[in-house]
Give the backbone structure.
Amino acid sequence: EIVLTQSPGTLSLSPGERATLSCRASQRVASLYLAWYQQKPGQAPRLLIYGASSRATGIPDRFSGSGSGTDFTLTISRLEPEDSAVYYCQQYGTSPSYSFGQGTKLEIK
Amino acid sequence: EVQLVASGGGVVRPGGSLRLSCAASGLTFGEYTFHWVRQIPGKGLEWVSLITWNSAGTYYRDSVKGRFTISRDNRKNSLYLQMTSLRTEDTALYYCVKEQLYASGSYAFDIWGQGTGVSVSS
């Protein structure tokens, strides 16, 4: 199973700043099969990015994804207070198998 | 609006059984692959199982193989997870999730239900 490791564990930034969240895979992941989700307290996860860089429906263009191979990044520009959440990366592999990173908690000061 | 409403969770003793249900609305249910994903309270997400649109393919994570059975009824727009021989480590919030296949060939979990809680405790 591919292990996804996210960093940092917690990120504390101010409104208007840029957040850079990392997701590193233990083996190569096809970009088509890398997604990012946002989860706020008491809510189900919400899809932000699929295919490593495509925004899901209704997601503001402040959210962007990039990367390939084993290193992927979620960037949130111009942070807003409502961006406080835990962010997860996820990969889909053969077998099939699905795995999630352990999450990055983003705090907006 | 697409909605997935999960139910059937509860408190059960180790070795017990539960059947989770997920009612879908606002979409053509029978066209999509669905999954169950769980989340231990305060922890991360863990994929549990999937079923293809026509039930021809069912897959499970290793730790639940032989104990959990996923099924669906496309006439009733419903997804199920029969859980037997439950263990304390199965305690979690269980989400039913719709898989979307995009034109690019990408897959992602685009619609999540609100989750139903399962607690396995003696």
Q: What stands out?
A: Chain B touches chain A at residues 35, 44-47, 50, 59, 95, 100, 102, 104-110, 112-115 (CB under 8 Å).
